[in-house]
Design a protein that fits this description.
about 140 residues, alpha+beta, Phosphorylase Kinase, domain 1, 2 domains, 5-stranded antiparallel beta sheet, 5 helices, 5 strands, elongated
Length: about 140
């Protein structure tokens, strides 16, 4: 096998590798976004969505992550307003555990937990904080 032939094979191999990377990396990224897009919904996104709804007030919203998210509440982020508190957790399991501690005032939607009065009594026909969060993403 001559030097020119080896050089040609090496170039073809590099082209295939580059083409594979160019195709696979975006595909992997899009798959990740499609499967885990809910994970990126932050308390700030939720509060912003509530502000556009006339019947879902959010007054005096403030980021309380540094005060609330600790060893006791293993959240990633938290925003508290006069009417509602929104917590984001690292895992669905942690969110579920925390929502249980809130009783009827807690509502879990994947990685988010909402705390507001009678959250657990939500009906399908009511527009509530919980139903709006659920509507912000598609179901599994």
């Amino acid at each position: 096998m001559g030097d020119n032939e080896r050089l040609g094979q090496s170039r073809r191999f590099r082209r295939w590798v580059i083409a594979a990377v160019v195709v696979l990396l975006p595909a992997l990224f899009l798959t990740h976004v499609a499967l885990f897009n809910r994970w990126y919904l932050s308390p700030g996104n939720a509060v912003e969505a509530f502000e556009y709804q006339p019947n879902l007030p959010v007054t005096n919203a403030r980021d309380v992550t540094s005060e609330v998210c600790s060893a006791q509440v293993s959240c990633r982020a938290a925003i508290v307003a006069d009417e509602i508190a929104v917590y984001q957790f690292w895992t669905r399991g942690a969110a579920q555990e925390y929502a249980r501690t809130l009783g009827e005032d807690g509502y879990q939607s994947d990685w988010l937990v909402l705390r507001y009065e009678d959250a657990g009594k939500m009906t399908n026909s009511d527009m509530s904080y919980g139903s709006l969060i659920d509507a912000m993403w598609t179901s599994d």
